[in-house]
Design a protein that fits this description.
The chain is an alpha+beta fold. It contains 8 helices and 8 strands, in the order ααααββαβαβββαβαβ. α3 crosses α4. The protein is globular, with a radius of gyration of 16 Å. The protein starts with 19 loop residues before the first helix and ends in a 20-residue tail after the last strand. The C terminus is likely disordered.
């Protein structure tokens, strides 16, 4: 699905968008997702083990546009660069920003910059400069009307300013509805969930679905 606001794809980290809610909120086993093979995973077990960790790869996949590799092909590439690690007991750690940025540059020609400290007020400028931003937020950002329980732990992709220039438009890999998969918030509302870190990317040669290139919204750099 292509977003009408920014022309980037809207994708979820689970292969069946209709099952995101049951998986993340009701405990449905991802291995029962009938579309698991579309992710590129080798088996339902591998899909179930990894899909909850691949919000960052889903952001990359959306940023790469119409011709992006499968989710697990991107995972495989990120693993080779150390952007994910596994401990002796099988625990998965990541996404680790520095090796991810190296992978994005080397494998996909992306100008990727790690921002270990990033103020909310800096986000519009990055978008105006033609970059997208993979930002660390709390997963509860899909319920912006509720108090934020924390910051960080999940990744979303900021693609543009809002039409009035005062907020941000972003795609959430774990959005449970159409309105939370492609969402908009005032900058102050986004900041309540934002951990102040992320990775900004300028795409090289990739295009959004149905569009000529990365949009920058209504900001002064558009």
């Amino acid at each position: 699905m292509t977003c009408s606001a920014c022309r980037f794809p809207v994708r979820t980290q689970f292969a069946s968008p209709s099952l995101v809610g049951p998986i993340v909120e009701e405990g449905l086993d991802p291995a029962t997702d009938p579309a698991w093979a579309e992710s590129g995973a080798a088996s339902p077990a591998e899909y179930a083990r990894w899909s909850g960790h691949l919000c960052g790869m889903t952001c990359l996949r959306m940023a790469l546009g119409a011709d992006a590799p499968s989710l697990f092909a991107l995972r495989d590439g990120a693993l080779r660069y150390g952007a994910y690690t596994e401990d002796a007991r099988g625990g998965i750690r990541g996404l680790i920003y520095a090796p991810f940025a190296e992978y994005a540059r080397a494998a996909h020609g992306i100008d990727a910059t790690v921002h270990r400290e990033l103020a909310p007020e800096e986000l519009p400028g990055l978008l105006d400069a033609g970059r997208v931003v993979m930002a660390s937020v709390h997963y509860a950002i899909r319920y912006p009307e509720r108090p934020a329980p924390g910051r960080g732990g999940h990744l979303v992709l900021l693609t543009s300013r809002t039409a009035d220039g005062r907020g941000v438009h972003f795609h959430n890999p774990s959005g449970t509805t159409a309105g939370t998969r492609a969402a908009e918030l005032p900058l102050s509302g986004f900041a309540r969930f934002f951990a102040g870190r992320g990775v900004s990317m300028r795409m090289a040669g990739a295009r959004p679905e149905g569009g000529p290139g990365p949009g920058t919204g209504a900001g002064p750099g558009a």
